[in-house]
Amino acid sequence: MQLTDPQITLRPVNEGDFPFLLTVYGSIREDELMQTGWSEQEKLGFIQMQFDAQHRAYSGYPDTEFLVIAYAGADVGRLYLQHQKNALHIVDISLLKEYRRRGIGHTLLSGLFAKANSQGKVVQIHVEKNNPARKLYAELGFQPVADKGLYLLMRKEFDEKASLD
């Protein structure tokens, strides 16, 4: 996938990345866990249990790439991408809190759009209804196509004349 910012790179996940991926997962659950009143040990145990369950579930998705997102040489997030017949399905895209709102997600999504468009595919993602990133997805042209309870399935379609930005 071609990215317009040379500081952003992707590489396949390896066994040594699991502590980092756990940290990324914990960062996306941080606000939620602050409301529990749990001790730090209880929070860490919960995060580990949930991360392990999520990893097992995602590992069962066929034709999925598990990628680490790096920015300026530092690991900053994860991108899990399933290659379906007619879609690039974003299983997960997450950045550490301190790297959000810097244009990294926009750059990654623009690269995915170009790749999908060149392959005649759509880009889709399940998004929690209260996820602040929904605003970015809507600004980039994702449309809700199915209500899945806590989640919306959102899709970005392309035509030859559409701009990717």
UniProtKB/TrEMBL annotation:
Gene3D superfamilies: 3.40.630.30. One of its GO terms (molecular function) is acyltransferase activity, transferring groups other than amino-acyl groups. Residues 8-159 form the N-acetyltransferase domain. Pfam families: Acetyltransf_1. It comes from the Bacteria. This is GNAT family N-acetyltransferase. It comes from Undibacterium rugosum. The lineage of its organism: Bacteria, Pseudomonadati, Pseudomonadota, Betaproteobacteria, Burkholderiales.
